[in-house]
User: Which sequence fits this backbone?
């Protein structure tokens, strides 16, 4: 099993040192988070809490993902990086395709695109994009990205994404993995159909075997069961070596340490974060390997 460190909400000026240290102690990758903005007024719509409101606040930091990933790529040599998840239907897939291809080359294939439909209606309203069509827009964005990464003139014509023959250079040197995030049935189906992996939204250890079985069945339904597929799952439980070993037997391939803010509280120091990562490495990563 591979292990990742979530870096969502960590202070932006600490992120490079966090990435360097994560690589040093043996993490496979780091996973950030994405939102374009925080609205002054938000209606309840967050699907992963009883209140309908998200855990972040208006001062929670969401740095630009492409600037962050470029900096992490330059500061590390083996560490992978992804976003859990990038709100893809909010963005222009041509610009995203170019950024991904550039990162793939500059990082020597260490970038993973983590994408999802998004849940915050206000983001879409402010961007002038229909919130109700985000799922269909996401599907077309995923199809368009695979087309745009080809080293030739390409075109795509969908209901929401449409462009004439164009070419983006440079093309990526590697097949850029796409991991799809989300917990509902549509997200699982989308991951099985389009994804090279799935990013969970937080599961109890008891839920994981059933989710993995469902993903396997869906991938078989789409004729993709023979392809590599990563499952990057955050567990709503204290990290434990035996738990990860047990879930690996059910097919879980990547585990997460806890987010810093959940484990240490808001505004923890860089030294506190390093100690937390080193403790996880000593208790989980090194014994597991």
Assistant:
């Amino acid at each position: 099993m591979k292990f990742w460190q979530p870096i969502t909400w960590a202070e932006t000026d600490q992120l490079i040192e966090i990435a360097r240290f994560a690589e040093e102690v043996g993490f496979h990758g780091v996973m950030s988070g994405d939102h374009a903005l925080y609205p002054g007024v938000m209606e309840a719509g967050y699907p992963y809490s009883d209140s309908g409101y998200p855990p972040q606040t208006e001062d929670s930091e969401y740095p630009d993902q492409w600037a962050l990933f470029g900096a992490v790529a330059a500061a590390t040599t083996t560490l992978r990086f992804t976003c859990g998840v990038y709100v893809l239907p909010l963005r222009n897939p041509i610009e995203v395709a170019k950024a991904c291809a550039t990162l793939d080359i500059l990082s020597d294939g260490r970038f993973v695109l983590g994408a999802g439909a998004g849940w915050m209606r206000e983001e879409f309203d402010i961007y002038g994009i229909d919130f109700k069509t985000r799922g269909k827009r996401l599907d077309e964005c995923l199809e368009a990205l695979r087309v745009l990464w080809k080293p030739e003139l390409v075109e795509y014509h969908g209901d929401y994404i449409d462009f004439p023959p164009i070419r983006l250079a440079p093309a990526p040197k590697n097949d850029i993995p796409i991991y799809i995030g989300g917990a509902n049935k549509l997200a699982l189906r989308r991951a099985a159909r389009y994804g090279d992996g799935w990013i969970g939204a937080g599961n109890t250890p008891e839920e994981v075997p059933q989710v993995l079985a469902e993903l396997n069945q869906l991938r078989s339904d789409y004729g993709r069961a023979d392809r590599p597929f990563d499952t990057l799952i955050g567990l709503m439980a204290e990290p434990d070596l035996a738990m990860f070993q047990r879930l690996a037997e059910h097919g879980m391939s990547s585990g997460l340490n806890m987010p810093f803010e959940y484990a240490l509280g808001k505004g923890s120091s860089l030294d506190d974060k390093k100690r937390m990562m080193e403790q996880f490495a000593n208790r989980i990563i090194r014994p597991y390997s």
Residues 2-284 form a domain with the TIM Barrel fold (CATH 3.20.20.30). The longest helix spans residues 270-288. The longest strand covers residues 2-6. The radius of gyration is 18 Å.
